[in-house]
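Residues and backbone
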Amino acid sequence: MRTVDEHLASILDVVAPLGELELTLSESHGCVLAEDVVAEAPLPTFDAAAADGYAVRVDDVASIANTGPVTLPVVGDVAPGSTGVYSVQSGFTVRVQGGAPVPAGTDAIVPMGWTDGGLANVRIDRAPTAGYGIKHAGDDIAVGQPVLAAGAHIGAQQVAVLAAVGRARVRARPGHASSSSRSVGSTSILAV
C-alpha cells in the first residue's frame, strides 16, 4: 500500500506549472507575474506641485526676508492633468493646484498658507527656497528601478503600479482559482 506522500509525489511528477502568457493589464489581474518589472517611465512623469499654491521664481520673492511681503500679478491657473505649455516670466506668478505640472521658468511653489490667496494679484508673506513644494519627475520611482518581482501576485495595486510605470502588457501565469465556476458534464471547471 502507498502512503499519502507517495501518492502526492506520483501526482506531482506528472503535472507542470502553467505556461507564461503575454497579457494585458486587465487580463493579468489575479495571475502571478512571470517576469521582473522595472519602471519604463519615471513617477511622477513630470515636475508637479506638491500642494496648492503659487509657482514663482525664487529670485522674485527673495527680498521678503529683508523688506517684507511681495505682491505679484497672477497670470494664470494650472490644474492637475493640464497639458498646456506654461511659462512664467520674472515678476509674475501662476496659481497651481497640487499635482499640476510646474510651469517653466519657476523653481518653487509658495503654499497658499503663505499668501493672501489673491486671484489677480497675490501677496506672498514668506519666501520658499529653490525646489520647495515641487515633486520632481522620478522622485517616487526612477526609470529602470525595479518595481515588481517575478512571482508577485497581481492584484489591483500591482495593476495600478504596472500602468503607472508605463507597462501595457506583462508576462504572467494563471494564479489561484477564483470563486466562479462552470460545469462541463459532471466535471466542475474553475475559472482562473
Observations:
- The domain at 48-135 is CATH 2.170.190.11 (Molybdopterin biosynthesis moeA protein; domain 3).
- DSSP finds five helices and 14 strands in the chain.
- The first strand starts at residue 21 and ends at 24.
- Residues 4-14 form the longest helix (11 residues).
